[in-house]
Give the backbone structure.
Amino acid sequence: MAQIVAGVGCSHVPAIGAAIDLGKTQEPYWKPLFDGFERSKQLMAEIKPDLVIEVYNDHGTAFSLQYIPTFALGVQPEFRPADEGWGPRKVPMLKGDPEFAWHLVESLILDEFDMTIINEMEVDHGLTVPLSLMFGQVKEWPCPVIPLPVNVVTYPPPTGKRCFALGRAIRKAVEEYKKDMRVVIFGTGGMSHQIHGERCGLINSAWDKQFLDRISKDPQGLATVPHLEYVRDAGAEGIEMVMWLVMRGALNDDAKEAYRFYHVPASNTAVGNIILTN
């Protein structure tokens, strides 16, 4: 039987990917951030996932304003890194697992989640940056990855409660899969940041740290936080953190916190990472 063994919450700041790709990780500005992720990579090497389900948001590469799925799932065998305006990231091609992906999407739809099935798409920094932070610079990713994009770009995004419930449904689907498989689920995005308007550059470290506390110890309470609080206290783009609730909903209620890291700033955002194990 497949089982979810761990969950990862991780920021996906595009400048982090650029720092990795341009060999800047040891520069004074970037070194404290990348040092904080060394333990994360050690833990991933110890956990040894057979498959990653990665919850992230597309940034206008796979989807446009013509089509905006609330929840989607990629079922293709391979996913090419997208060109986001400066060429594709020089990271390995992502291998999918179509057999598992079709099992997952069928289970979620029959569980009354209206998933959009994606047979062909490229993946952007929202997906590749957390993989680089968790697994390092590798010639190939250590396991297949199932992309699960969530709309947190255009209003209305899904509620935290709905995201948490999706996580519960993912856990059920994984546990019904007949092959032995160690699954890790990523929830990505955030932390507090706003990249436009009068509050551009907003970072709220107190709110971020409280969020990390609650995702660890009070996830069901955190799932009731309304959109307005995210936008008001964590910036307009802070709403991305509802995707961490998909990850948390997929874990056991008593999942244990294995590691936490928080850093300010990276570009104009706060960066967070938490690893929870079942």
Summary: The chain has a mean pLDDT of 96. The CA atoms of residues 81 and 128 lie 8 Å apart.
